[in-house]
Design goal:
alpha/beta; 6-stranded mixed sheet; two-stranded parallel ribbon; 10 strands; binds S-adenosylmethionine
């Protein structure tokens, strides 16, 4: 049985996100991905950055199966660990001491608008306790700027999200940044991405 899932957005955005990562990833080291979803990003980034140990995580067991299936399908089983069962709200996160000590940064793609605001709070709080000085947290997704949508399609997407679950929704970048600075991150770099998305790069103070 093939447990691989196919998320169409990943095929559209993986090259552009990979380009951002290429600026911030160290030459070698370990990155933890939160909410790895299908696992398509993970195997793409592991292939593009072979000297990085790309550690996936996911709270949804069906998605974890997909991640494992993608790792296997791409012949990366010897290189990549299996996905961690990680729900950002269940703190502390279940990271081994080896992972905690070798970690260089954390990446979270397209999660914070498709989960309650409490997940964003947990994500930022927990990453701030794990990351050391100058290590990075990279977020990717749609954001409001100055509490305004940056495109009509984001506005419509926000309505669709909130009708699916009132606790979801496109977040205001200023609020995310305020939370991050309150939790020990420097002001972020903001990179405009295709399809009205942003990459936000926070570094720990
Ligand atoms: C739109 S998908 C994005 C998946 C993947 N990062 C991508 O870009 O294709 C949203 C992801 O957030 C995850 N998620 C939602 N709530 C979560 C939580 N409390 N802890 C960790 N992940 C969560 C979902 O399981 C799902 O994988």
């Amino acid at each position: 049985m093939d447990d691989r899932l196919f998320f169409s957005a990943t095929q559209r955005n993986k090259a552009a996100i990979g380009d951002v990562l290429s600026t911030y990833l160290p030459d070698s080291g370990t990155v933890l991905e939160i909410a790895s979803g299908s696992g398509e990003h993970a195997v793409s980034f592991q292939t593009r950055f072979p000297n990085i140990n790309w550690q996936t995580s996911e709270c949804n067991p069906t998605y974890r199966k997909s991640i494992s299936a993608w790792i296997n399908y791409q012949g990366l089983s010897a290189k990549m660990e299996q996905p961690l069962d990680l729900d950002v709200e269940k703190k502390p996160w279940p990271l081994t001491s080896k992972l905690r000590t070798t970690l260089n940064g954390i990446v979270c793609i397209n999660m914070i608008h498709i989960s309650p605001w409490s997940c964003t709070k947990s994500l930022i709080y927990e990453t701030s306790t794990i990351l050391k000085s100058d290590q990075f947290l990279i977020l990717y997704g749609p954001f409001k700027r100055n509490n305004k949508h940056i495109s009509h399609s984001n506005f419509q997407f926000d309505i669709a999200l909130r009708s699916q679950n009132p606790t979801w929704g496109v977040r205001n970048l200023d609020e995310v940044c305020k939370l991050a600075t309150e939790n020990g991150f420097k002001n972020p770099e903001v990179i405009e991405m295709p399809a009205n998305n942003l990459s936000i790069i926070f570094h720990r103070k």
